[in-house]
Specification:
Blueprint: H1 8-17, H2 23-35, H3 39-48, H4 54-66, H5 70-82, H6 89-102, H7 105-117, H8 124-136, H9 140-149, H10 155-167, H11 171-183, H12 190-202, H13 206-219, H14 225-237, H15 241-250, H16 256-268, H17 272-284, H18 291-304, H19 307-320, H20 326-338, H21 342-351, H22 357-369, H23 373-385, H24 392-405, H25 408-422, H26 428-440, H27 444-453, H28 460-473, H29 476-489, H30 495-506, H31 510-522, E1 531-536, E2 539-544
């Protein structure tokens, strides 16, 4: 009784004064210590027990597992086997949880073999743990094999598989499985709904997300705070920010997760000022921000390029004790970079106790963006030397750095190294960077050759890049081809017409200039005037070309 009530001093005194103790007494005091995080005391009692039962072994293994002592949990599991005790479903559930936390896929496979040997593979409890373990270790195919071979599946099993698909952005598979779950008559729970909404968000499946929302309303889950946060997140990631806002406004009970979902949603959808206003409201109701909140707010200030606001949030970060958090640190670097203060970005980056690929990408991209191309490349080489593997975003920054610094040969070398050295498959964005690099250097024949032979259909960015290069280097013929492609892809924009007209004017082809301008007039296209912004006394002022007063 005392142990279950967490009155461990009383429980320990009763236990010590017992004239005789049965297995139940030993197991109860060990479990009590473990649940209160006192694993040293639990271990001392365990070591005194002459003949631990399978329940005792499970208690000590589960205790180490729940208290985050993964390596010790595995050691006890091995000792349990050496003592001749047969593990059961509870044992395997704990040990699988440990392996999942450690991402120890090979150990997981060994455990899977032992589970099959003990005839527990079809058990819903163990099977669900296996599905979850393989999913979280990145082996989604193995996870589905286990799922398909299970003769008995409960809500937990279906939910684990759906969550696995959602985690790795297999949204369509998750949606299909959710439909099968309903046909099988298995009722979803709040975790299921959170998983399927995450899947919808991952593939921007707004229509399916709306259907899931309607299903939730039908069975009364729409007021559940946990699921509502997932709904707000889904609508925001599907770029339906007004639906997210309406849902948020209807909820009278709000926790930190829900506030974060809305604040981050505003930041992701370009509503920075609304996100900042909401952050103020959150502070007024005494909800303490966490690393997710600060990441969203810093992204908002970054998008507004407001250095003053970003510095204020930096002070809040320090006051809240999040300056050593890798996610917040990366967002601080990104904010300072986008606000043009590369020096402060370097200071934050240099003091970060831990850096991940996002931190490095922010710093490399920041130097490239601010015209420090060679510095960006030096950072890339340092990152690689520290065994941080670059990703596709890293190479966008690296190629941009080469572009700004005019390093064509280096840029081509880095592009070729993507697949050869780092197993990064170039995307259309990378090809666009390479085409821009070659175009700026005047290698237009090589640039168009890549356009014609790359494994993607060229988009407006590619053709626009090429058109700009043709104008710079006076290649009328190729410029006409690029402009015509842009007329088809983006008929509503005047920029390619203006560029082509300027190219004709530069070589005195006035008849062609007149034809282009006539076409623009017939299609109602007008050149947008130049515009500049300045921040004065916390107000942003916009100035349009030839205007004598500002607009706010």
């Amino acid at each position: 009784m005392y142990a279950k009530c967490a009155c461990l001093a009383d429980a320990s005194q009763v236990f010590e004064n017992m004239p005789s103790r049965d297995a139940f007494s030993w197991n109860t005091i060990i479990t009590g210590y473990a649940k209160c995080g006192r694993m040293e005391d639990a271990r001392q009692v365990f070591d005194k027990m002459a003949e631990p039962t399978s329940i005792t072994w499970n208690a000590i293994i589960a205790g180490y597992t729940h208290n985050g002592l993964s390596e010790e949990a595995l050691k006890q599991y091995k000792k349990m086997q050496q003592a001749g005790m047969k593990p059961n479903r509870f044992t395997f559930a704990s040990v699988l949880s440990v392996c999942t936390r450690l991402s120890a896929l090979e150990t997981c496979k060994q455990l899977h073999a032992q589970i099959a040997k003990n005839g527990l593979e079809s058990n819903a409890f163990v099977g669900s743990a296996l599905v979850d373990m393989y999913s979280k270790c990145g082996s989604i195919g193995e996870s589905r094999l286990v799922f398909d071979e299970m003769s008995e599946r409960d809500t937990v099993t279906w939910t684990a598989m759906i969550a696995g698909y959602a985690q790795y952005r297999h949204g369509l598979e998750a949606l299909n499985l959710f439909g099968q779950m309903q046909l099988a008559g298995v009722k979803p729970n709040e975790v299921t709904y959170a998983g399927i909404l995450s899947a919808c968000a991952g593939v921007a499946a707004l229509e399916q997300g709306n259907q899931v929302h309607a299903h939730m309303v039908k069975i009364g889950y729409d007021s559940n705070l946990f699921v509502s946060s997932a709904l707000v997140d889904m609508y925001a990631k599907c770029e339906s920010i007004h639906d997210a806002q309406q849902l948020f406004d209807k909820l009278h009970e709000r926790d930190l997760v829900l506030w974060n979902a809305m604040i981050v949603g505003y930041a992701q959808n370009g509503y920075a000022e609304e996100g900042l206003k909401l952050f103020g409201e959150m502070q007024n109701v005494a909800i303490k921000p966490d690393e997710v909140t600060f990441t969203g707010i810093l992204n908002s200030w970054a998008s507004l390029a407001s250095l003053k606001g970003g510095r204020q949030v930096h002070c809040l970060v320090v006051r809240a004790g999040f300056e050593s958090n890798v996610c917040v640190g990366s967002s601080l670097v990104d904010m300072y970079v986008k606000c043009g203060s590369i020096e402060e970005a370097c200071q934050v980056f240099g003091t970060m106790p831990e850096r991940n690929i996002i931190s490095w990408n922010a710093m490399i991209g920041g130097n490239a963006l601010n015209g420090h191309g060679r510095k960006a490349l030096q950072l890339f080489e340092k990152m690689v030397s520290e065994s941080i593997k670059p990703n596709d975003s890293t190479f966008i920054s690296v190629l941009s750095a080469c572009n700004y610094a005019g390093l064509m040969d280096e840029g081509c070398r880095y592009f070729n190294s993507m697949g050869q050295d780092y197993d990064v498959i170039p995307r259309l964005d990378h090809y666009a960077c390479l085409i821009d690099l070659l175009g700026r250097a005047g290698h237009l024949d090589e640039a168009i050759n890549i356009v014609d032979n790359m494994p993607f259909e060229p988009n407006a960015i590619v053709w626009g890049t090429l058109l700009g290069a043709c104008r710079s280097h006076g290649n009328i013929e190729l410029g006409e081809r690029a402009a015509k492609a842009l007329f088809e892809l983006e008929p509503q924009y005047a920029a390619p017409y203006v560029l082509l007209s300027n190219m004709y004017a530069a070589v005195g082809r006035w008849d062609d200039v007149a034809k282009v301008r006539k076409t623009m007039k017939e299609r109602g296209l007008k050149k947008m005037p130049g515009c500049s912004w300045i921040d004065v006394k916390d107000r942003v002022h916009a100035f349009v070309a030839e205007e004598v007063t500002s607009t706010c």
